[in-house]
Design brief:
With about 150 residues, the chain is an alpha+beta fold. The protein has one domain: Gcn5-related N-acetyltransferase (GNAT) (Aminopeptidase), CATH 3.40.630. It has a 6-stranded mixed beta sheet with strand order 1-2-3-4-5-6, sandwiched between helices. Strand 3 and strand 4 form a beta hairpin. The two termini are about 25 Å apart.
């Protein structure tokens, strides 16, 4: 499924299109601590729910309405979370950004690499304006500082 869009890389991370094989890792990472910060990712998040989420994300990606990235730690090749860009259905020039990392990957400074990722994604979405994320600062929204891509 990497053919839907190019994988992006930072010094320590690879962001690639989510794939059906990511369902087990996705389900295992959705703990109560992670789920409490993300509105549409309940706990428990079963394997079946993960399969359904991946399938629906890939359908949206094929339609040009979403970029669902699996965040992978390059050193271990372990999936550590998701990054999602969703097009607004009412205004296709707008969209939203969301992300989450598995609990054991918090506090490692991964989101500090966001500038490189943001710039690469900005080139993938040159005409989509993104709203500033509305996540608690404790979960990293403050460091993202996304207003719009130019």
């Amino acid at each position: 499924m990497d053919t839907l869009f190019e994988a992006l890389e930072t010094a320590r991370l690879r962001l690639r299109c989510v794939a059906p094989d990511d369902a087990h890792a996705t389900s295992a990472m959705m703990t109560p601590e992670v789920s409490r910060w993300v509105a549409y990712w309940p706990f428990p998040f079963t394997y079946e729910m993960a399969v359904e989420r991946i399938e629906s994300s890939l359908k949206l990606a094929h339609a040009g309405d979403m970029l669902p990235f699996a965040v992978v730690e390059k050193a271990s090749d372990e999936m550590i979370g998701w990054v999602m860009f969703n097009r607004d259905t009412g205004n296709r020039r707008r969209g939203s950004f969301g992300y989450w990392l598995g609990e054991k990957h918090h506090g490692k400074g991964y989101m500090k690499e966001k500038e490189m990722v943001r710039e690469k994604i900005a080139h993938s979405l040159p005409h989509v304006l993104l709203q500033k994320p509305k996540f608690p600062a404790a979960f990293g929204a403050a460091i993202l500082g996304l207003n719009a891509f130019r």
